[in-house]
């Protein structure tokens, strides 16, 4: 430094001492500067004050000589002390050169810079807040300084800013400014320095505590998208991203619980961030738990009032200022988009409120459905995420059925496809959604008219036999199958058609999950409706082999499943017109499978008709599969389902056709275990002479079958013959193709 240069009003002694390598001499010079500046303050000579500060900054603090820089720093601190409360007028000139020295390569000089800034801030107090950003930036650098003395000094300065400075301003509320720098805090949380990340975690934690204490003063809407962005940051190769995601997810959880319905306009973005986290493994257990809490809390915010049309909502509810997105929303979104690009957050979904100009909080249903549908279509979606998606769909159909049915046509194909999922739990949730769609009253009055299609209007025509010499046809729509069954909407029949079509195309699904799916549907909907509609659809099925397989599956479920107990009892006696109509409907489709038809007759106690059917078996092609079905029927006869049938063998006189039918089955069987089982059962049939009652041997016995509505069994036999003729024709065609594989039909 040129010592002969004019540094007035600084004296040569002060200049010389400021350049000295000894700290004590620089300290003496600082005391002289403090005395000089106090005189200028007393004289109100601001020009000289600025001149002194400028000399200390340019000629000393920013000098090339290290001792001069140290002298300049202590001199600037002395100026601030001398200025006292007036230091706020010169803060920029005082702070800027000190912050420049934070980047000095000399650790001692960085320490002196931290010390100088501490003294400046201590005097200025609240006046430094306009410079908070640059101060915070400087502190964040020193917090990770390799020199322990520098780090210790920065911590002292940090505490000074947070306790003394901020508390010295009575009206300050940093939560008001949080939306402006929250994104920056989350970016700092991804810093490569462990110490910086630790300090940033502490800062974010303190802010979250303040938010919990004063939720009414928090601008939740302005920060929702910030959290949405950072919740979606995930990179297994970078552990810092895990910290960002966990922290932002924790904030999101608190926001949803504290803000309530205010966050509904951002729900699609929240779900985009939350749903994938639900399938995390134990390595990210904390993030998964936070995401689960977010999902649960957000779901509870959706209520039936969200099903009201927007026009109705505006007339019924008064404007809610807290529900309206801030006017700063567009500016905030622009800044966040820039932030995305700067930190490399690629492929992140960013959502704006569905209606930023509406006074009331509005559920972004279209956006939510879009997100849910996208996750269902994504083959990489984890099992827990798929379950959560289906729970959301079910919840939306319960709470907002009117609006949800506008999306049903687009969701329906994927919901059907999900039945092929490998997880039983996913299939159960999927069936709950489909069952709700099929039974919801909203499906009958869909405003979009999506339910108005030919499939959904199909009627079930069930021959009921004859009454008083005239044919009786029981015609009933799916919406009112019988007085004993609840009504179904127009999607029910569409569902049944598509379900059977899926079973036809995916035979493995039918084999592995068919019975499981149908049993669950019988619990969720109504067993009579399920069997009624499926029987009617199978009656028109062109693939006869599939029809036979499907009938066999349905028959096994009907005879063995606990879920079908009530339906079995309804069919057992056939005392009502409805039960007779159901029997006739099932019978016509059951004719695709002869053994199943006989078992249906056993169930309904139509023993004479069962015997007539068995007599026709001699004209059928008896295959190994056919004999195996007879074998299974014999096993079923020995099961608890047919206890009443076995007891009826005691009444030989009034059940001769039951015995004949069983003997007919016995004659069909080869000498096998089933043959021995049935033969042993028939050998136990008592002699009718021994079973006569002594009291009144000639008393007539009333046949309970006489009280039932009449059924035209001859017509049913003719139908059986027609169906079996079709099956025989198809088998001959297949045999012809196998013998002449090159022949084109």
TrEMBL record:
<protein>
    <recommendedName>
        <fullName>Protein VAC14 homolog</fullName>
    </recommendedName>
</protein>
<dbReference type="InterPro" id="IPR011989">
    <property type="entry name" value="ARM-like"/>
</dbReference>
<feature type="compositionally biased region" description="Polar residues">
    <location>
        <begin position="315"/>
        <end position="324"/>
    </location>
</feature>
<feature type="domain" description="Vacuolar protein 14 C-terminal Fig4-binding">
    <location>
        <begin position="507"/>
        <end position="685"/>
    </location>
</feature>
<feature type="region of interest" description="Disordered">
    <location>
        <begin position="305"/>
        <end position="336"/>
    </location>
</feature>
<dbReference type="GO" id="GO:0010008">
    <property type="term" value="C:endosome membrane"/>
</dbReference>
<dbReference type="InterPro" id="IPR021841">
    <property type="entry name" value="VAC14_Fig4p-bd"/>
</dbReference>
<dbReference type="InterPro" id="IPR016024">
    <property type="entry name" value="ARM-type_fold"/>
</dbReference>
<keyword id="KW-0677">Repeat</keyword>
<keyword id="KW-0472">Membrane</keyword>
<comment type="subunit">
    <text>Forms pentamers. Component of the PI(3,5)P2 regulatory complex/PAS complex, at least composed of PIKFYVE, FIG4 and VAC14. VAC14 nucleates the assembly of the complex and serves as a scaffold by pentamerizing into a star-shaped structure, which can bind a single copy each of PIKFYVE and FIG4 and coordinates their activities. Interacts with NOS1.</text>
</comment>
<dbReference type="Pfam" id="PF11916">
    <property type="entry name" value="Vac14_Fig4_bd"/>
</dbReference>
<dbReference type="GO" id="GO:0006661">
    <property type="term" value="P:phosphatidylinositol biosynthetic process"/>
</dbReference>
<dbReference type="Pfam" id="PF12755">
    <property type="entry name" value="Vac14_Fab1_bd"/>
</dbReference>
<dbReference type="InterPro" id="IPR026825">
    <property type="entry name" value="Vac14"/>
</dbReference>
<comment type="similarity">
    <text>Belongs to the VAC14 family.</text>
</comment>
<dbReference type="GO" id="GO:0070772">
    <property type="term" value="C:PAS complex"/>
</dbReference>
<comment type="function">
    <text>Scaffold protein component of the PI(3,5)P2 regulatory complex which regulates both the synthesis and turnover of phosphatidylinositol 3,5-bisphosphate (PtdIns(3,5)P2). Pentamerizes into a star-shaped structure and nucleates the assembly of the complex. The pentamer binds a single copy each of PIKFYVE and FIG4 and coordinates both PIKfyve kinase activity and FIG4 phosphatase activity, being required to maintain normal levels of phosphatidylinositol 3-phosphate (PtdIns(3)P) and phosphatidylinositol 5-phosphate (PtdIns(5)P).</text>
</comment>
